[in-house]
Amino acid sequence: MNNISRTGSYRAFRLLCVTLGVLSLSACATGPVDRTPPIQISGMVIENQTEMYVSAVRLLVPVTGNFVSCGNIPPGSRCATTFPESAYSGNPVEITWSQGGQIHSTGQFALQAPDDFDLRKTAVVQVVISGPGSAGAILVENPE
C-alpha cells in the first residue's frame, strides 16, 4: 500500500510539474500571432486640390530609402504612377513637395487602409495635397 501511494504521489507530482511548465511557457506569449498577409502596393496617385502648381512630389520610406515621385502637377489635376508590387510592412512614410517656391513636408507617418480593404487586391497610395503645406495619404484598393 505504501508503494502504491508513492507511485500515485509521484504521478501527481509529475502532472503538476508538467502543468506548471506549460502555464509558465504560455505566460511568455505576447498574444495571438497576426497571420494577416501584408498589403501589396502597386502604385501611387497624387491629387493636387490647390489652385497652384505642385512640383517634385515625393513619397519616401526613410527606413529603406525607397521612394516614388511625380514632377509637375497643375492645379486641380493628378499624377499617377505604377511600380512593381511591394509589401507594405507599416514603416513610416514622408511626403515632400514644392509649391509657391517653398518646400513642404508632412513629417513621418504610417499609411492606413480602410477596415474593409480587400487583401486579395493590391493597393494604391492616394496622396492628396489640399493646400500649401497640407497633405496626407491613405491606402486604397487598386481600381484595376
Secondary-structure topology with pairs:
Layout: H1 2-27, E1 39-48, E2 55-61, E3 66-70, E4 78-88, E5 93-99, E6 102-109, E7 123-131, E8 134-141
Parallel strand pairs: 1-7
Antiparallel strand pairs: 1-4, 2-3, 2-5, 5-6, 7-8
Kindly describe this structure.
- This protein is an alpha+beta fold and 144 residues long.
- The chain has two domains: 1-33; 39-141, Sandwich (Immunoglobulin-like), CATH 2.60.40.2890.
- Helices cover 18% and strands 45% of the residues.
- It is built from one helix and eight strands, in the order H-E-E-E-E-E-E-E-E.
- The protein has a four-stranded mixed beta sheet, with no helix packed on it. A four-stranded antiparallel beta sheet has the order 3-2-5-6, with no helix packed on it.
- The N and C termini lie far apart (79 Å).
Summarize the structure.
This protein is an alpha+beta fold and 144 residues long. Helix content is 18%, strand content 45%.
Q: What can be said about the biggest beta sheet?
A: 4 strands, mixed
Q: Supply Rg.
A: 27 Å
CATH architecture annotation of the largest domain = Sandwich
Helix coverage percent = 10-25%
**What's the total count of β strands?**
8
Query: What is the ordering of alpha helices and beta strands?
Result: HEEEEEEEE
C-alpha end-to-end distance: 79 Å
Low-confidence sequence ranges: 15-29
CATH first level of the largest domain: Mainly Beta
How many domain regions? 2
What's the mean pLDDT score?
83
Measured by DSSP, the beta-strand proportion falls in over 45%
Spatially, the strands of the biggest sheet line up as 4-1-7-8
